[in-house]
Each structure stands twice: as C-alpha cells, then as structure tokens.
Amino acid sequence: MLESVGDPSLPTRLLGLLLFGVAAALSARGHRRLQGLDANEGSHVKRRRKWVALTLLLTVALFGYIRLFDVPYAVVGIYPRSMAANPLLLVPDLFLGTFLGFGLYVIGSGLGVIVSRLGDEPDRTQLRASVPRSSTGWIELFVVSIPAIAVAEELLFRSTIGALYAGYGVSPWIFVVLTSVLFGFNHLYEGGAVAVSNGIVGGMLGAIFVLTGNVIVPIAAHYANSATLYLAIYQQPEELFDEVPPSLR
User: Where are the domains of the chain?
Assistant: First the structure.
C-alpha cells in the first residue's frame, strides 16, 4: 500500500505540480493529434521514436530533480537501496505486473468493443500503421520502444500520484482519477474508443501503484498490456493493412 513518506517539503510539492503539468501538456498534445494537427508529422514509426526520445528525456529529468533536491525515492515508488541489496526482490513484482498486464489487456479490449458499439470506432489507420513489418521492427518495439515508454509513462503518471500525495497529504485516489483522465486524453489521437479504454486502464494502473506502493508492478503491467496489444493486432487478417499508405508500412 502506498504510504505517505511525510515529506511536505517545497521540492516535493513542486515536483507533484510539475509532473501534473507535464502530464496535462502531453495529454493536450494527444488531443491535438485527433484534430489532425500532426497529420504531416511522418510515419507511425518515426512518431513513436520521437515519443521514446521525449519520454527518456523526461525520465532523466525526473531522476535529476530527485537527486538534486534530495526528494525521497519512495515518493515515486522506487526503493534503490532494497533493489541494490537484493535484485531478486524485483522478480515477484515483475511477475505480478505481467500477470496484471494480461488482465488489463482483456479489460481494455472489452471496453474498446463496448465503446465502439456505441458508435465511436477506433482509428484503424493508427492501429494498422503501428504494427512492425520486419523482424528488426519487432525487436526495436519489444526491446526499446515499449520498455522505454512503459517506464517513462508510469514514472510520469504514477509519480504524479505519489508526489502530490506526499506533498499535500490529500487522498491518492483523487489523483488516481485525475491522472487516469489525462492518460486517456494522451491516447485520444487514436480515437475516442481507445481513449476511454486507456483512461480506465490508466486508472487501474494508478490503483495498482497505490495498492502495491511501488512503480515496478505498473511498469511491468504496462509492458505486458502493450506487447499483448501489438501481438493481437498482428494476428488479425492481412486485409486490415490493405488501406495503409506504403509510407507507413
């Protein structure tokens, strides 16, 4: 269970506000994509690489801030001393997160179907273009892209919960709801159905963070959910890719 580290210091409070602001800004970017402002940005792969680079930069900035201002790592659900003393302690968390990630995929898929039947179809162009077309693309996806995005997004959205809770002492469940809304908006460019299902899944990831008290479990769950999604799309009939422009293949 996430516990308050009792650190209402200015750096911790400021960290919570900064993280929430960054999450809101990134979510607004997802909304602009829906409006077609990024239509000429390039292929899906190039956009994903840009997102990976940005998320890695945010991760470095987060740890730099924590180190510079001596913010407790527990605020973001990380316990470096325990991990360094016994790395095997990560194994149960990784297994638990992976198991929960498969469950999140099932729940998210079901929610997507329900929302689609209500009249909001997902952007199939995005789904089709996201699937790698070569073995090199799959390696990059599973080894670089998904891990980097899972780590950075979970640190960003879940650390927001931890930092605001530690800094202001307000119930973390309030921030779980707020960050889940932002998490959904961050995927709005893929369509309303995807945004709604991702918002609910984001809320579940936030709940996992609060209930376990560490960020490793939601990171593993995020990775398992995303990896399963790509594999599921790949298993769909080849006709789904017929309308994808050659530049996106």
Answer: 10-238
214 and 92 Cβ atoms separated by less than 8 Å: no
Closest CA to 38 of 249, 144, 190, 184: 190
Rounded Cα distance between 55 and 26, Å, is 10
Closest CA to 214 of 100, 92, 77, 88: 77
In angstroms, the Cα distances linking 29 to 32, 51, 129, 156 are 5, 11, 19, 15
Please tell me what DSSP assigns to residue 118: T
Q: CB under 8 Å, gap of 24 or more: what pairs does 26-29 form?
A: 26/156, 26/182, 26/186, 27/182, 27/183, 27/185, 27/186, 27/188, 28/185, 29/186
The residues, ordered by sequence, that sit 6+ positions from 92 with a Cβ below 8 Å of its Cβ are: none
Cα–Cα distance for residue pair 120/123, rounded to 1 Å? 9
The parts of the chain modelled with pLDDT lower than 50 are 34-42, 239-249
**Which residues make Cβ contacts (< 8 Å) with residue 64, sequence separation at least 6?**
none
What 3-state class would DSSP assign to 3?
coil
State how far the Cα of 172 lies from the Cα of 213, in Å rounded to an integer.
Answer: 11
**Predicted TM-score of the model (pTM):** 0.85
